[in-house]
């Protein structure tokens, strides 16, 4: 069974490096959203809907050759995974998301996201990030939980295209945009789903809200106690074990 991994912001596919060797299924395909380790097509506006449609197109090609996939999404990849489950469940054998709280009706964007959503302030923040260079940016990522080895690999992919894509994406997701997406969560229950909840991830909303969103989507719930947003780099063996158990049952 093909496993498809989709990462988020501000990341590249290197974020999965420590997890992949522990997965029990394969082949494993890593899809990089435009601007996040992959070129941005001409005319691509980097909105939530455009990223969803991009992922659907990528999955259609894989499914045509190999059949429905086990889709695993992290961060924005996790949002895209559940939106595909809601829109095109025929492409999926199963889906996993670690940010279902973003689709809860009460979700409030974290402070950094709110800065990105502000004209001027968002550009200024990302310009500062670009100015520090890859080594210092890797240090910033590792300081907030990403494994230093992975942070070094991710940081080299942070460029002006990624910065621009971040701004466009987050500005298309100003509330109530996410709450409106969340209204369709019950449609995701057509396909088996798993909500991974790293208990130290403060970007995905309160654990109770994440559990509520998971229930709406008919998803199983696994708590990853003591790890945060980059659980796949902090404790890849435990994260992979949760995925492997889900696929086996």
Would you give an account of this structure?
The protein is of the alpha/beta class and 249 residues long. The chain has a single domain (3-108, 179-248), classed as Alpha/Beta hydrolase fold, catalytic domain (Rossmann fold, 3-Layer(aba) Sandwich), CATH 3.40.50.1820. The protein has helices at 48-66, 76-87, 111-116, 121-132, 134-143, 148-155, 160-171, 177-182, 207-216, 231-234, 236-248, and strands at residues 3-6, 28-31, 69-73, 92-97, 193-198, 220-224. The protein has a six-stranded parallel beta sheet with strand order 2-1-3-4-5-6, sandwiched between helices. Helix 2 (76-87) links the parallel strand 3 and strand 4. The radius of gyration is 17 Å and the shape is globular. The two termini are 14 Å apart.
Structural class: alpha/beta
- Relative helix content: 40-55%
Approximate strand percentage: 5-15%
Please tell me what the overall shape is.
globular
What is the chain-wise order of helices and strands? EEHEHEHHHHHHEHEHH
Q: Which second-level CATH architecture applies?
A: 3-Layer(aba) Sandwich
Number of domains: 1
Write out the CATH superfamily name. Alpha/Beta hydrolase fold, catalytic domain
CATH top-level class: Alpha Beta
Average pLDDT, all residues: 97
Q: Tell me the strand order in the biggest sheet.
A: 2-1-3-4-5-6
**Strand tally:** 6
Gyration radius, to the nearest Å? 17 Å
How far is it from the N-terminal to the C-terminal residue, by CA?
14 Å
CATH topology: Rossmann fold
The low-confidence runs, each spanning 5 or more residues with pLDDT under 50, are none
The total count of helices amounts to 11
Biggest sheet, in brief?
Answer: 6 strands, parallel
